[in-house]
Structure formats: structure tokens, C-alpha cells
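Hi D.,

Good news: the full-assembly prediction came through. Inputs first.
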Amino acid sequence: MIPNGNATPLADIPELEFAGFRQRVLEATGAGARISALFGFPTSAQNIALMAVLAHDQAGRLELLRSSPLSKSYPALTPDCPQAHWFEREVAEQWNIKPEGHPWLKPIRFHAPYSPAGGDSTNRNAASVAPGVTSYFQVEGEEIHEVAVGPVHAGIIEPGHFRFQCHGERVMHLEISLGYQHRGVEPSLRGGPNVRTLVAMEAVAGDTTIGHTTAYCQILESLGQALVPARAQYLRAIALELERLANHTGDLGALAGDVGFLPTASYCGRIRGDFLNMTALLCGNRFGRGLLIPGGVRFEADAERLEKLDTQLTAAFEDATSAIELLWNTSSVRARFENAGALSRQTALALGLVGPAVRACGVEQDVRRDFPWGIYCFSQMPVSTFPSGNVYARAFVRWLEIQRSVAFIRELIRTFPDGPVQTLAMSPAPQHLAVALVEGWRGEICHVAATDAAGRFAFYKIVDPSFHNWFGLAMALREQQISDFPLCNKSFNLSYCGHDL
Amino acid sequence: MLKILAARHHQGYRTFPYPKELPSLPDRLRGRPKLDASRCPPDCKLCEEICPTQAIRRTPQGLSLDLGRCLFCPACEQACPTQAVQFTTEHRLATRRREDLQWDGREFALARQLDEACRRLFGRSLKLRQVSAGGCNACEADTNVLTTIGWDLGRFGIQFVASPRHADGLLITGPVSRNMELALRKTYEAVPPPRLVIAVGACAIAGGPFMDSPQVLNGAAAVVPVDLFIPGCPPHPLTILDGLLRLLGRLEK
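Then the structure:
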């Protein structure tokens, strides 16, 4: 058990016989632990073991488990633990190891398998891994019809393929097939850190630049035992909350647009830009590119700049309040939000959803409170929940979080400490494993890195919150009208590139 | 109803007067940098060594920066001991030819307008289909923002449409992942000619942070001919709009 943002010698992680590993994962998840990451881990040039990072939210501790090396297959966890569903599909695709008995074993990204020796999937066999070509779940019957959408969608949006099995307007099942944005991020990180690593992290998911880069910086800082100065931690937290503000505001505007309520849609589209401009005030880039660096931040913020930030924040929050409150006061909007995309608390927990999606099912779960890092260790933020699990809940949780993020940033500005904004990062410890969790605006971001004997990355794993949540969207669509898909989709607003990596 | 009207009054009129006036830009915006090789200490190659995409090079003639590869990150500027590289807030970056992005710090060949025939076709009405091909959603987001009330792209006659059949061209973001190659080609073929292709962002121009990954094709030009290159990671919305308007001959300077 380790706290968030810690490194531990690889040798200290107990290696369990597979049966014991499987049993421990099932025990822990049965008792309420969440799978933050579950992945194939190369233990030698030939061998793959399974490794699990289990989040014990109540205890605020992460449990690391490693199995003995696997042969070509193993008994799948998914039938007993639905949370493992997507992770095991990833294991099968990345390492060509079959989870026997997995009920839904299909590719998630459509690439050729990796080699434990560190080779890349350059020798892809185009015939066998054409994106989107797989067997799809099909409902049969005289009045059943199938709707296929994507990969290229109608708006300015990333690509993905969606298949709906419908009876009239009613969706019986939605299957989501991704992988179009696959850029080979994880294999490209092996052998790092190098000059490319930081910019790749910034572009894992552009709308979550700060979230993913924060996790990466924590990985390096825990491996190098660097103590990040308080002033830098303040600036990182301000940037992370600004990212949340921009995206939540944009999402509420887009949700309004999807039910044809144009006032909020047009105002929020613009106000989202105001928040992005505040990030640009800090570092010159609207998405926070260039701000974070292992050991601290690259840009100083003097009193004058912070005052300007405060003024802009106040103005944007006033505009946001005026625009967003219309949603809750307009009965036609409420009716549409309340009658779409309901997900039960039970389903959300079983699938291991994260972020606003799970909090909108009444679950108090937030990395900022459960696994605090940086300034969140000292300055607590209440967890925003809503019980109804539908589009309304996912929208309202965002509004609650907007208010709390604004209050939090103001508090940070008031108590801004003196001191440097960078410390020299030390070189990463060899043969260690580090885990970092960050509450990005979509939910829990998990990075796991292992170093080799020279302190280079032998392995790097990224779990974007979308990885947990895409199946939640599929479940939320059941028994809905197909015309409500855009609305339900936007209420999750998941990342394609963050998932596809 | 009254609340909607009150909100409308509160929000006011918010469209920028651009291109009559430039909207205010952040003071730390990293636009086109100043390059001054005369300041370079002998044998110093710090910028070259730290650049994540090998965009900047110290040559016998001075400094050479490939703005197509440049991520406009602060690495070289902060590493340079003599301020030979200094970013400015100059937002105008778009070019018509890939080679024009190779910059030595002197004259910069901003995008020329389309030829007369194309300008007559597209100059007052340009419909674009956007394709994200491995993009990280930052270029996409800052393209999308042009359609909000702040920028109001529609007033220039430019619009993003849902089908390539309705489009005059493509606006492509992302390094073109192998998994999007076919979809991108099909979308291009579905646009009736004459058609334009606009590559937005470092990824779509040269692969960006994912350059040379075996899973990407290092940009749109690997699949389709490109008519306009708009650098940045991501480009500021104003940089994108400047490029589009320049192409249509709607900007004077």
C-alpha cells in the first residue's frame, strides 16, 4: 500500500501466483476498492505479468499487486468483476494474452500486439487490424434496424465508430468502437524521459493538458524525490482548476445546444474561452502548454498578474452564472435533461466509473479528496455529487464543481506563498515503480511508470478517465431514444485521443 | 422568459471587431519568434539539443527554425543564454507552401491569396469539413471556438458543414494516425473538386509531438495535397482565422 505520488522499489511489490493475484483483486474490489489500472507488465524480454493498481478510497492508499508471469492465457477477471472489462481487452490487444472466459473480447484500439522485448507494433498486419473491423453485437428481428455512425462525425469532433441496435426510436444497445486516434503514445515513452516526453504528455489529451502533465510531473518527482516548491504547487492547482472551469463551462453550453436552448449555448461557448485565456495569462498558451515542468512550473506569477487573474475570474464567473442558471430555471431544458441517460449508482460502481459521471450517481469519489497531492493536501475541496444519475445530474455536478473551483482559485490567490517556482529534478531512481493519480476535469487520471537499471522508463502506462467511462455511456444509452444520443454523449464528453493513446 | 431577457442584457454584444482591430492577446503568447544568430555564442547548440521536435538548428548561416515542426514551447527560449531566440506575440503564421515555414529570421512569406478563379468560387462562401486524424482535441477546440459569438466565423462566409459532399474543402488536424488514413482519404474523395485542404497545427503539418511514431504518417500531406499550413500547438484561434482570411484574400496586410 502506497500513498498517491509515491515510488516504490519494484522488488518490494509482492509477486503472487496467478490464482492468488486473481483472488486478491476480486476480494479487494468486492470490498469496495476500485481498479485504477490493470495491465500487462513486461518482466523480461519474453514474459508478461499482470499488474494491478487498486484504489482504496476510504484509506487513501493504493495497493500494488503483481502476478507471476503469464502463459498465453489466464482465467479472466471480468465475469466476476465488471470493472476489469476494458482493462482485460487492452491486455489481450497489447500483449496477445487471452483472458479466458472474457464475455466481450474485442480490440479497443486496433493495433498489432507489442513485444515484451520493447519492439513496437511496426509490423502491423493491415488485414487483421483494420480499424473498426470486428464482430459487433447484433439484435435480430423483423423490426430491428441498425444505425452506424462515424468514424468521421458531423461536427468538429474526434473520430469514433458507434453502432446502435434500434427498435423504432428506442436504442436496445449501443456498441462503441474506438482506436482511430491511436498514435502509439505508450510505446514511444519507453527509454525516456527525453526532450520529447513532456510535449507528448501535454498532447495525450489536449483538453486535459494540465491534468496529464501534472500526473507525469508527479511520476518524475516521486522517482527523483524532488520537493516541488509551494508556489509551484499553487500555480499547478490554479491551472488544473482553470482547465476544469473551461471544460465544464463548454460542456454546459454544448448540452444546452443539444436540447436547442441557444442562449446558454452561445454564452457558454464564449465564456469557456475566457477561462482558456486565463490559462494563457499564466503561460501564453490557452491549453497550458509549456506551463508545467518536472520540478515545478516554468512561469512566475507576480502580484500584478494574480490580480489580473482574479479580476478576469470574477467577470467570467458572473457571466457564467448568468448563463448557466438559465438551464435550471427553464422547464423545457430541465425536462429534457431529467428524462435522458439515467445510470444507476449500482451500474456506475460496478463499471468503475470516475469523475463527474460517477459523482452524478451520488457517489462521493474525488481524487482531490481521497488521494490528495500537492496543495490539495492542505486545502480541501468538498466533493460535489447529485443522486439522479441522468443528464441533469451530470450537468448539475459540473455547475457545482464550477462554483467550488472558482472559490478554490480565489482562496489560492489570497494565500499565494513566496519562494521559487522550480526545483532541480533529480534523476529517476532505478528499478522503481511510481504511481500518480490526478483528478482531471473528466475524472481520475492514472499514470504508472517503471524504471530500468539505468533509471529510464522501461514501461509507462496511462489511464485516461475516459478509459473507465466509455462503457458507462453505452449503458446510459439503453432504452433511450436514438435522437438523445448527442445529449447523452455530451453529458459524458469523453476523450477519444486520451483513450486511444 | 424575463430571466432569459435579463441574461441577454447582462451578456451584451461580445463579437470582436476583428479584422478592424486586433483582439487583445496574452502578453506571454508565443507567436513567431525573433531569431538573432549574431547573439549566438560560438559552438552553442543548446536550443538544438533541447528542442523536442528538432525544429531549430544552428547552421553555418545562422539559425534556422522549421515553424511547421515547432511546438512553440518555451524550451529553446528559456535555454538560450543570450536571447538569440525570443518569442513575440506575432500571430500571423500561415503559409501556402511547406518550405515557406522554414524560417531564418528574415523575410516571412505569409500565405498568398487563392488564384482569381478559386477566389471567385470560395471568396465569399467557404464550406469546410473538419477531420481530426489523431489530433489531441486542442487544435479542434480552437478551431471550434471560431464558430462562437466571440469570433463569429459565419460573418466571413466561412462555415463548417456536416458532410464532405457539402464542403469546398477539408480542415485537417492531427498527425494522421494509421487508423484514420482510410477515413481521411475517403472524406477527401467525397469533397467535389475543386477542393481545398488546410492543415492546422504542428501535428497536421509534420507530426507534432508524435512525429515519427510508427502509428502516424507525420501529417496531412502524406495523404492529400495541402493548400494552406497553419502552424502552432495548437495555433491561437486568431492565427487560424488569419490564415483562412488570408487564403480568401480578405486581409489587407
